[in-house]
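[job 4471] stage=fold_predict status=RUNNING
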Amino acid sequence: MRPLNIGDLKINVPIIQGGMGIGISLSKLASAVANMGGVGIISTVGIGLTGKQAAKGYKNGNIEAIRKEIRKARELTPGVLGVNIMSVLTDFSEMVKTSVDEGIDIIFSGAGLPLDLPSYLTKGVKTKLVPIVSSGRAASIIAQKWKQNYDYLPDAFVVEGPKAGGHLGFKADALFEVGNKLENLVDEVVKVAQEIKEKFNQEIPVIAAGGIFTGQDIKSIMNRGASAVQLGTRFVATEECDASDEFKQSIVNATEEDIQIIKSPVGMPGRTIFNRFLKEAADGQRRPAVCKHNCIRSCNPKTTMYCISEALLAAFKGNLKDGFAFVGSNAGRVKSVSTVENIFNELQDEYHKAD
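[job 4471] inference complete, writing structure tokens
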């Protein structure tokens, strides 16, 4: 596979591990991926709930945990590390500032348009900024606003299709439209990137995400102009993943029929392994008495069917009776717990054998 260059940052293997919260991708998984030459990503959403720092309160705990996980990952790898920070988080600003202070290589940001992200960079900072988009239009808007307001262009784009896991950047009725297939979205965003290059003489690589599972998938999407791919679900069922064994096993045990689209309290559709907890939530049996964390701007605690932070935290710890797992569309194809090294080797072998 061709190396990925994001500005002056060289990534030897063009595979990015998706950011998965709460607690699914922390320093252990991120460093393992980085050690294989890819980009390891620490998910920041609810990160402070996963350890002892939870006693310090939601926002204070998050900031301490971000510092801790970045530093821990740095001790484990000399490779390229990123963080994923959702733009709808109430402590978005503090998370970005902390990540920049810690010298993180890349900030990936989606779940909305992170229009002010370049404002957090100061002179001499080498952190790259990569927005996650679900259309060429979104990529174009971000590039225009960043250039206009900050004289800064995105260092890369992640274009995430409707087969991804977790929250999806599409309305529920648009998930299965032909125009929203990942291949078509990649074409759109590559076109935007080419227009930017012609106008400003800056390369902006496009990273394809959502539904990538095999080396053949990687080759096919890179043949359409993507410079790299992002995978999430395949890295969950690994020994290095930070999630509990029960969480990993829930993916190994899942069938294609178990994977369903739900409406998240965040207001977006999400892809999950449907279980009893989600059935009870749909029946109104999981309404929270109070909002414990005030974590996401778009969540209304007065009307939400359940607290998504508490549900994802329970799942991270292995309690699937009180939570659930977000997964990509290919989760049913995961048959065993593997290792990050084995997955990289399989993907590269399949890539080289692909037509």
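[job 4471] summary: The radius of gyration is 19 Å.
[job 4471] exit 0
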